Every structure is written in structure tokens, then in C-alpha cells.
């Protein structure tokens, strides 16, 4: 099992590493993306300048930060997937 001790509250241990557990994780990710999208779409424009309680950034900044964070990780995943391809597969993509 993998764990980063300083970050256990954010990244709990992964116990079940089966294909079905992975599929359930992907489903949960899709559900959370939809919930986030609904929350952002439902936020009145007038609230975007409100500061996030206890933080030094606005709701607008938070929304942009979440999008940028997700895009960063999507780029990492794309690089990892490409690195796992065989040379022939990479040549075919070029």
C-alpha cells in the first residue's frame, strides 16, 4: 500500500487495488466533477468576488484554481500514458 505520512488526511491508503475498485474511483471522480460543475453554474455572478472564508482568495479565484489544478494533473496523466507506450506506438502517434 502507498501512503505519504504527511498527507494521509488528503490521500488515504489505497487498500483495494482491483479493477472494480478502480472503476468505482473513476465513477466517483465523474460524479464529483458534475457536482462541482453544478455548484459553479449555480453560483450567481455577484458572489464571484466574495472571499472564501478563512482564505485570501475569492470564489472566482477558487474556481479557476480548481480548473487549473485538474488540467495540470490531466497533463501529467497524458505524459505518463505517452511514456508507457512502446516506441512503435509513439511513432504512430507522431
Q: What gap, in angstroms, lies between the N and C termini?
A: 37 Å
- List the total number of helices: 3
Largest sheet: none
Low-confidence stretches: none
Brief characterization of the structure:
By secondary structure, the chain is mostly helical. The chain contains three helices and no strands. The chain has one domain.
Task: Using brief descriptors, characterize the structure shown.
3 helices, 0% strand, mainly alpha, 94 residues
Give a written overview of the molecule.
- The chain is an all-alpha fold and 94 residues long.
- It has one domain.
- It is built from three helices and no strands.
- The chain has helices spanning 19-41, 59-84, 87-93.
- It is extended and about 50 Å long.
Topology (SSEs and partners):
Layout: H1 19-41, H2 59-84, H3 87-93
